[in-house]
Write a structure and sequence with these properties.
234 residues; four-stranded antiparallel β-sheet; 30% strand; single chain; 6 helices
Length: 234
């Protein structure tokens, strides 16, 4: 596998008066193209900070975040906006769909920011929602809405998908479907999928598990034989 992401001595500091909080403290690790990676840690451990740094939603205070050979820490605001729009897919616990647009329209709205024309019907078919293209979010179940959000995230063929507790608002059966879909994207499309979660069960299906505590990498697990999604206890 080729290295897609490399963090070198990455820190993120927040200052409140004289108080300095290190939400990320000297992070070092690599992630390969096509890997499914779980970033695991308790609330307040720095997981979301790390996700924001990888997604270009925030800038590191120091260090290098090298994505596809480029250090995004050095990007201008304009270049970071381009990076987020073209190269990153975001999947959140809550679906962030636009309520007055259909499922298809929620995907094709990306045509305002990408160069190639996106066919919403085709993308929805990839996630098993061909029959729901003209439905509004309120007419879809939670799992169907999450699949629309995944379809929107993958429509622009991003380098990586950043997933923040993507099954947190779903029941176990629907959550299993979503994780299977993310695993399939890794295997079929060679997409790099990064899941931020506090649920240690997700470690079973990952190629790599990065344990975060107090803003630091506690340890990293490499999993040569990930288990199937059926191994997860919901």
């Amino acid at each position: 596998m080729n290295t897609l992401i490399e963090l070198k001595n990455v820190s993120k500091e927040y200052k409140t008066g004289n108080l300095v909080v290190k939400a990320a403290n000297n992070l070092n690790f690599t992630i390969n193209k096509g890997e499914l990676v779980v970033i695991l840690g308790p609330s307040g451990s720095g997981k979301s900070t790390l996700l924001n740094l990888l997604g270009g939603l925030d800038k590191a205070s120091s260090g290098e975040i090298i994505i596809g050979g480029e250090n995004i820490v050095s990007f201008s605001d304009k270049k970071l906006t381009h990076y987020r729009a073209k190269e990153i897919g975001f999947i959140f616990q809550f679906y962030n769909l636009i309520p007055n647009l259909t499922a298809c329209e929620n995907i094709e709205i990306l045509n305002d920011i990408v160069d190639e024309n996106i066919d919403g019907k085709e993308i929805l078919a990839q996630v098993g929602l061909a029959q729901h293209v003209n439905k509004f979010p309120s007419e879809l179940s939670g799992g169907e809405q999450q699949r629309v959000s995944i379809a929107r995230a993958i429509a622009k063929n991003p380098k990586m998908l950043l997933c923040d507790e993507p099954t947190g608002a779903l029941d176990s059966n629907t959550g299993r479907v979503i994780i299977e879909l993310l695993i399939d994207l890794c295997e079929r499309e060679n997409t790099t999928v990064i899941i931020v979660t506090h649920n240690s069960e997700f470690a079973k299906v990952a190629n790599k598990v990065i344990h975060i505590k107090n803003g630091q990498v506690e340890y990293i697990e490499e999993n040569e034989t990930p288990q199937s999604v059926d191994a997860i206890n919901w």
